[in-house]
Amino acid sequence: MPVFDPDAALDRLVTIAQSDTGQSARVANFLLAWWNAGDCGGFDFTDLWNVDRAIADDILAVTRMIAIRHEYPTAYGYGPPCERLVADWRPRLFDQPKGGRAWPTAPERGTMPPPLPFADACSGAPLGGAPGLPRGCGEGAGH
User: Whole-angstrom Cα distance, residue 143 to residue 131?
Assistant: First the structure.
């Protein structure tokens, strides 16, 4: 089994997410879920089926790094690139009221920021609503 360098994998993923290829959106979704899933959305792990094997390996290497190190991208100097990814891939977040906060940013370690008031893509319900998986989400929901 090959040994993966998570720092090099992260560099490659950021470069891919900043480009305009067919796989860029999926890589950006992964990085933005790590940056701030509450505001930027989660990562659909079935996206691993739809990227090249090398990209999937990089995502898995970074996922393992996240699990071991318990840190956000800012710990590796990726604050500005992630802010750029938000602007490029989630421009709607900048159209939302910010309530005096600088959103979206990576949450402080051990805290969970309140979500921005935009609808869940799956259910249409405002984020922060009822807990659990919205009806219609998940397997066979077309996403």
Answer: 20
**DSSP one-letter string for 26-55:** HHHHHHHHHHHHHHH----GGGGGGS-HHH
What does the pLDDT look like over 91-127, one tens digit per residue? Answer: 888 776 554 444 455 555 444 444 434 344 444 444 4
Give the number of domains in the chain: 1
Closest among 114, 119, 115 to 134, alpha carbons compared: 119
Q: Is residue 46 part of a domain?
A: yes
53-48-15 Cα angle (round to 5): 70
Q: What is the pTM of this model?
A: 0.67
How far is Cα 56 from Cα 50, in angstroms, rounded to an integer? 9
CB–CB of 76/90 below 8 Å? no
Using the CB atoms, write b or e for 78-108: b if 16+ within 10 Å: beebbbebbeebbeebeeeeeeeeebbbbee
Range of the domain at 48: 6-95
